[in-house]
């Protein structure tokens, strides 16, 4: 059982793990990243309906206090609620159906006081990524990526970096693989010095084609590409059978780690975890939020 005090301690411990680094004047300040599939608010989930857990979702985010936040399964009204609860963040996202407000958003949120946006955009995980609502391969639904290029005001001498957030299809195996290859081309291929953080629900485990495509470039990485690091695996080199990120609402821990935070070599992983926060067996979502603390090299 996790109490509100325990949830607070989770946030405090991960911050404490990097406090000494943050205090060193010759080091860049840590960047706290969270990826969180908050479950569709329109789903008929009974006691787990959005209205019964929305404050828990906001509290879970608030306790970790991320600098960067990527959400999945976020409908327009859920995004409005999160923005109201977390006024210190800038929200960047659109609906996947029309590029406006219809359907799932995969928004990126960043602390307004810390980051200045240099560029931003969206693209669809399809053969026509510039076309809103498009889908290809065996994808069951339109899928997309929202991204921002940010300048860190706390590290003004550093180059801007990209933060991108995605949600891959839950049915189409080929669609997931091709989506990963598209993200790789967009953010990694031919960009050896690109600073990038990729977050999302990839509906794929660590032994999958999408993971291989993003982290290993399908085994075709060259000097012109940016090697990608799995933050959780960097922090926990030994694999475990209890790394699942899909809770099934019951606190399940066995299965695939399908939610990832990935980053380029421009960052170092200071810490990473799967946040199992719950309140007397009730969970804020059917996915665990995942968290990482990074630092610019």
Write up this protein.
By secondary structure, the chain is an alpha+beta fold. It has a single domain (4-296), classed as Deoxyribonuclease I, Chain A (4-Layer Sandwich), CATH 3.60.10. It is 25% helix and 26% strand. It has six helices and twelve strands. The protein has a six-stranded mixed beta sheet with strand order 3-4-2-1-12-11. It has a six-stranded mixed beta sheet with strand order 5-6-7-8-10-9. A hairpin with an 8-residue loop joins strand 6 and strand 7. Helix 4 (173-187) packs parallel to helix 5. It starts with a helix and ends with a strand. 45% of the residues are buried. The model is unreliable at 16-23 (pLDDT under 50).
Q: Which CATH first-tier class would you pick? A: Alpha Beta
Proper CATH architecture: 4-Layer Sandwich
Helical proportion, percent range: 10-25%
Strand order of the largest sheet: 3-4-2-1-12-11
- Based on CA atoms alone, the radius of gyration comes out at 18 Å
* Largest sheet geometry: 6 strands, mixed
The helix/strand order is HEHEHEEEEEHEHEHEEE
Poorly predicted runs: 16-23
State the fourth-level CATH superfamily.
Endonuclease/exonuclease/phosphatase
The strand count comes to 12
Mean pLDDT: 92
Number of individual domains = 1
